[in-house]
Amino acid sequence: MTKKIFGIDLGGTSIKLSVVSTEGDIIDQWSVPTDNKDEGQHIIHDLNQAIDAKMKENNWTNDDILGIGMGSPGVVNREKGTVTGAYNLNWVDEQPVADDIRSYFNADWPIFIENDANVAALGEQWKGAGDHASDVVLVTLGTGVGGGVIVNNQLVVGQGAAGEIGHMFSKEDGRKCTCGKHGCLETVASASGIVWTAGELAYAMDDTGSAIQGRIFNGEKVTSEDIFKAAEAGDIFAEAVVDETMSHLGRALGQIAAVTNPKYILIGGGVANAGQYLLDKVTQHFNESVYPGVGATTHIKLATLGNDAGVYGAASLVMANI
Amino acid sequence: MTKKIFGIDLGGTSIKLSVVSTEGDIIDQWSVPTDNKDEGQHIIHDLNQAIDAKMKENNWTNDDILGIGMGSPGVVNREKGTVTGAYNLNWVDEQPVADDIRSYFNADWPIFIENDANVAALGEQWKGAGDHASDVVLVTLGTGVGGGVIVNNQLVVGQGAAGEIGHMFSKEDGRKCTCGKHGCLETVASASGIVWTAGELAYAMDDTGSAIQGRIFNGEKVTSEDIFKAAEAGDIFAEAVVDETMSHLGRALGQIAAVTNPKYILIGGGVANAGQYLLDKVTQHFNESVYPGVGATTHIKLATLGNDAGVYGAASLVMANI
């Protein structure tokens, strides 16, 4: 029997798992809830039980497993296999994740842990919109703005903090970011950045009669999804918000492309559910600012795997390292 | 006898050559003038004669040569070993550089040709301020702004146009660049960009009594070197010019660092002769804009090899590929 790989995506809501063959075929895929009570001390135990159950179900022994790849939030120590400061797991101190798995199973499996945004980039490269290109960047627009950069078929980790796309300086006199700096891309192009920009513009512009602007004046909650939908339907105020935020995103993508000139920059995350309309807007602003030789060779696309990118990318970590 | 490598840096004024051992020791180094008359058709012939003379001087046969590495201006086709549009060599059409060398010597040497800015980055990584780090970026501030990006010990070429640092969008409502876009870093932080910024600021500011500002008012020529020297000596106007230009450079370096988080970003080129004063200014602005986790791990330094970076980097191309 050929060996199997476990791909794991640790998230604040669920732990997603996959079993992948050494040929790269996805054999099985499921998830278990994340129990982040008691400072997240149940998470690895629950994960171990999920792996154990799958092994028993298939009569697999330790020798049938080639290795484990994992994407995690927080700061990953790749050599030690630990995770620190993963706040949505309630992990503040350093967690010996790889050691805890190996000792539960009494196995000497290779275990590769990587930042979750980086792992998602690998997943999109392998099974999604990255289409096996050797140079791919994934930018995720969610609560924050994250990223993963692949160059020459290798993940770029730099000194540990590569792909911090969300904290690229983006806006002159921009607002304060969670990182302490001002004007980071995340303050403009994340879901909350888009909503904040709408608030600013609502009061900076005349009353356009826009329903979205009116809701802001009334103190009602507006989401980035509402704004994109209204813009696509022709709401002038919402269009202005989309133009302002996507111009900053388009320029940032141009700056990324000037550095690594990837074949694809993929846009993922919840905000990217706005789809083709968002893609057209960001591509327009990208083309306005990017060096022509770079713009002609770097293409912006929507990511296609959604929440599955992580488990696929996690499994690919094992294949890349063995 | 161990084999030898030729490292060659093709430039508009001179062709620089080096002989390097397979252990990476530089055995010999010299240069010949670049004769770019007659559409540059003498250049490769002169280069071949320079190599030939060195081989005869040492009684080397074709078998004693491991390969040739070369840095060239213009657009390089790495597979074909050709160069197109190297205007300071007067090469407009595609030149079969590698084939012309091999046929002159009737040799089957491997010949690696790479963009000159990329080759300089490899040289600084190997023998200069890059200190053998696996992740290094070189930014050259000269007539234009160029760059070379190294990740995981490999040159980043992307789809052929990676490292186009000079054309990163940098300045809102900035002036038109040679590439056709507006506000590129090159329009602000190259030697000519700094002089242009001085001209803009001279008329935007009140008369500060600055000698530099006075020379601009009188229509006299001012260089970026004049501006840095005056700023360091306390000229208020020149300080304002340095602050404006270095703030754009510092932010751009922060954006590069957010993408690849290199250990070192090295500043080279003629403008960098301003030395420690320039380094302090750009580092200050870098730290103001960069994500703290990136700023703590990416260090800005001055390049140390000057014009020698090219020949060393060119030789290293052979060692990396064999």
Rg over alpha carbons of chain A: 21 Å
Number of domains of chain A: 2
Averaged pLDDT of chain A = 95
What's the CATH H-level homologous superfamily of the largest domain in chain A? Answer: ATPase, nucleotide binding domain
Major beta sheet, strand line-up of chain A: 3-2-1-4-7
Q: In percent, how much strand structure appears in the residues of chain A?
A: 15-25%
- What level of helicity do the residues of chain A show? 40-55%
Find the structural class of chain A using helix and strand composition.
Answer: alpha/beta
Sheet bearing the most strands of chain A, described?
5 strands, mixed
CATH topology of the largest domain in chain A: Nucleotidyltransferase, domain 5
> Which residue ranges of chain A are poorly predicted, with pLDDT under 50 across at least 5 consecutive positions?
none
Let me know the number of strands of chain A.
12
Order of helix and strand elements from N to C terminus of chain A: EEEHHEEEHEHEEEHHHHHEHHEH
Keywords:
homodimer; 322 residues; alpha/beta; Nucleotidyltransferase, domain 5; 2 domains; five-stranded mixed sheet; 12 strands; EC 2.7.1.2 (chains A, B); ATPase_NBD (chains A, B); ATP-binding (chains A, B)
Task: Describe the secondary-structure layout.
Two copies of one chain form a homodimer.
Chain A: E1 4-10, E2 14-21, E3 26-33, H1 37-40, H2 43-57, E4 65-72, E5 75-77, E6 82-84, H3 97-105, E7 111-115, H4 116-127, E8 136-141, E9 145-151, E10 154-155, H5 186-189, H6 191-204, H7 211-217, H8 224-232, H9 236-260, E11 264-268, H10 276-289, H11 292-295, E12 299-302, H12 309-321
Parallel strand pairs in A: 1-4, 4-7, 8-11, 11-12
Antiparallel strand pairs in A: 1-2, 2-3, 5-6, 8-9, 9-10
Helix pairs in contact in A: 2-3, 4-12, 6-7, 6-9, 8-9, 9-10
